[in-house]
Design brief:
By secondary structure, the protein is of the alpha/beta class. Helix 3 packs parallel to helix 5 and helix 10 runs parallel beside helix 11. It has one domain: Glycosidases (TIM Barrel, Alpha-Beta Barrel), CATH 3.20.20.
């Protein structure tokens, strides 16, 4: 039970919610005109948690095998958690928790079957439009990422990923369609998820396959690709503000130069030897969250929004049919307290908070379902076996309590 008597005050309009990415939840990889993405081509590999970074090894041969793979092959992102067919059920559960905001991403290949197409895929537009309407029905604001680790596979087969400057124009066209079609539902936008991630996993961030760059140092290709994404991001922001003058549009970035690294944060995270770590190398540091908020706000004096924070763990369904996850409740409690301190004691202007993986999803780093993040358990394993039934965890009710009290009641 949390006994700290210090004040816990959040702004009255604070945006509590959860976060996901299309490639990790949607599934329906070949339905209704959706084109393939790089994520659809990443196979599940049996690797230990200590060396899960081997999941990111990807060659031209791997791509060829994926393009020819049959339905028996285990490509987890192709099924996700079947959000494509469960989104109304899932959004209703988010609303039950009291969400004010739902961070999700749009799959470029669902809007344009081929990014070179002149006209968008109407079925893809209809899916997202209906999903946004469902959010609005419950008073949930969508927070939309335009590109979250799922470049169209065409960028790898017919281009050299984001190294090819032509991709900027293709993305500009895609962004314009999104702003024009969904702007009446969405006022919060992110262009690229962790635009610096090209340095850590160039395949999923930029569609870059190393064996296709024998004519230059691969690092050179990575930086050129990241430069092109920066340009595309700036162009998208410009277009967005022209079409939606009141929209709030930003990007995600980070820097780890000169710091010790440890497994975690998709490939490598900054290591602190004094912090506890999960078996996948993710470290728990609520004080670090507060320090980061203060540092960023002091430097830029811009409102901040925490769009990813969460805990991956091996949850189990108990004999009583429930999932008991006090460790997730404790993690949430400690980070909410850190946010409160940053707001009330340090003067940080913090707009909102979206828990990463608010419903179980396919892990980006390990492609596992058994590495679970959500407040909602999804009955499917690493091999795609299961009913896909949704089950509330204890943390579901705890987060509901936190939101109902606007962050003031952290007891459990």
């Amino acid at each position: 039970m949390y006994n700290d008597t210090s004040p816990l005050k959040f702004p009255e309009n604070f945006l509590w919610g959860g976060a996901t990415a299309a490639n990790q939840i949607e599934g329906a990889w070949n339905e209704d005109g959706k084109g393939m993405t790089i994520e659809d081509c990443l196979p599940y590999r049996e690797v230990g948690v200590a060396d899960f970074t081997k999941q990111f090894a990807f060659s031209s041969k791997d791509l060829e095998e994926a393009l020819e793979a049959g339905p028996e092959a285990n490509y987890p992102k192709r099924r996700g958690i079947d959000f494509y067919h469960h989104y109304k059920e899932d959004i209703k559960m988010f609303a039950e928790m009291g969400y004010k905001v739902f961070r999700m991403s749009i799959c470029w290949s669902r809007i344009f079957t081929d990014p070179r197409d002149e006209k968008p895929n109407e079925a893809g537009i209809a899916f997202y439009e209906d999903m946004f309407k469902e959010c609005k029905k419950y008073g949930i604001e969508p927070l939309v990422t335009l590109s979250h680790y799922d470049p169209p596979v065409v960028l790898a087969t017919d281009y050299r990923g984001w190294y090819s400057r032509e991709v900027i124009d293709l993305f500009e066209k895609y962004a314009r369609v999104c702003f024009e079609c969904f702007g009446k539902y969405v006022k919060y936008w992110l262009t690229f998820n962790e635009v610096d991630a090209m340095l850590r996993h160039p395949v999923t961030s930029g569609g870059l396959i190393e064996d296709r760059f024998t004519d230059m140092p691969f690092e050179q290709a990575i930086y050129q690709a990241m430069h092109h994404q920066m340009i595309a991001s700036a162009k998208a922001v410009k277009i967005g503000h022209e079409i939606l003058p009141e929209a709030q549009i930003g990007c995600m970035a980070a820097n780890t130069e000169g710091l010790d690294m440890a497994p975690g944060n998709t490939v490598n995270g900054v290591k602190n030897p004094y912090l506890p770590s999960s078996e996948w190398g993710w470290q728990t540091d609520p004080t670090g969250l507060r320090i980061s908020l203060v540092d960023l706000y002091d430097r830029y004096r811009k409102p901040l929004f925490i769009v990813e924070n969460g805990l991956g763990a091996k949850d189990v369904v108990a004999e009583d049919g429930h999932v008991h996850d006090p460790y997730r409740c404790e993690y949430l409690r400690d980070h909410v307290k850190a946010m409160s301190d940053a707001i009330n004691e340090d003067g940080v202007d913090l707009w909102g908070y979206t828990w990463w993986g608010c419903i179980d999803l396919v892990s980006e780093s390990t492609r596992q379902m058994s590495k679970r993040y959500g407040f909602i358990y999804v009955d499917v394993d690493d091999y795609g076996n299961g009913t896909f039934k949704r089950i509330k965890k204890d943390s579901f009710d705890y987060y509901k309590q936190v939101i109902e009290s606007n962050g003031e009641n952290l007891e459990y």
